[in-house]
Write a structure and sequence with these properties.
2 domains; single chain; MetI-like fold; 0% strand; globular; 271 residues
């Protein structure tokens, strides 16, 4: 009976997985077809199998330059968000008092403010000082994403015993050294979760970069994809090939950090 249940559960899980990934599979399959093949059979391979769509999309997207811009902005933003939010959350979790509570609820409250309501004042402020470039975009990304990261790290640090801090202090370690070498490594699952959440958000963001760095030579992949879809609206095979190219980096990042993400989810369920 138990064996039958396991088999049925495995089959059910397999079917759900296939349905979950099938849209992505269709995108990849159609990216390998010619223009006629997509309309002949959009759900499976056809005879006009080709990889030239990726070459054409790569060149049209100016993928090397746009990838570099996206990579610099995403990596710099994620590193800044992770370091600042982790340090702030650690301080909040260890320093008890009215200020800590106020700051925590302030972070939670700022998450309720829609970006659209502060978009114009924010751009106007940075525009007045002629500071609309990659650096200002990184600063904006940090400010808009740090609240959620602080709350996530705060919950993780709450689960780390204060005895570790006390033991490190007895050994002569300063608080900053304790944080860097002992406490922060102990919440690596949550660090992976914070990194992947922010990386996905910033990598795929179109609105903010379109307002801040919408200039030749500074386009990110989403900005290039927007114009590329307009240019290839009758050539779906090229548009889908460009979409596959834009997804690959973030998929690789998820595969690298999936253990940390799964560990974070498991810890949360156990608690």
């Amino acid at each position: 009976m138990k064996r039958t249940s396991k088999i049925l559960f495995g089959l059910f899980f397999g079917v759900v997985t296939i349905f979950w990934f099938y849209p992505f599979i269709i995108v990849f399959i159609n990216a390998l077809k010619g223009k006629k093949g997509i309309f002949q059979n959009p759900l499976w391979f056809t005879r006009d199998f080709t990889f030239t769509n990726f070459k054409t999309a790569y060149q049209a997207l100016d993928f090397t330059n746009s990838f570099f811009n996206s990579l610099v902005i995403t990596v710099a933003s994620v590193i800044t968000i992770t370091c600042v939010s982790a340090a702030a959350a650690y301080a909040l979790s260890r320093v008890k008092g009215p200020f800590s509570s106020i700051f925590y609820y302030l972070c939670a409250g700022t998450m309720l403010i829609p970006f659209q309501s502060i978009m114009i004042p924010l751009l106007s402020l940075f525009g007045k000082i002629n500071f609309l470039n990659r650096t200002s975009l990184i600063i904006m990304n940090t400010g808009l994403s740090i609240s959620l990261s602080i709350i996530l790290f705060y919950g993780a640090f709450q689960g780390v015993s204060n005895s570790l801090d006390e033991a490190a202090a007895l050994d002569g370690a300063y608080p900053i050294k304790t944080f860097i070498y002992i406490i922060f490594p102990s919440v690596s699952p949550m660090t992976g979760t914070v990194i992947i959440l922010n990386a996905m958000k910033i990598w795929n963001d179109y609105l903010l970069p379109s307002l801040v760095i919408n200039k030749d030579g500074m386009y990110t992949i989403p900005l290039k994809m927007y114009s590329f879809f307009g240019e290839t609206n009758s050539q779906w095979q090229l548009a889908l090939a460009g979409l596959v190219l834009s997804m690959i980096p973030i998929i690789i990042l998820f595969l690298l950090l999936q253990k940390q993400v799964m560990a974070s989810v498991t810890e949360g369920s156990v608690k």
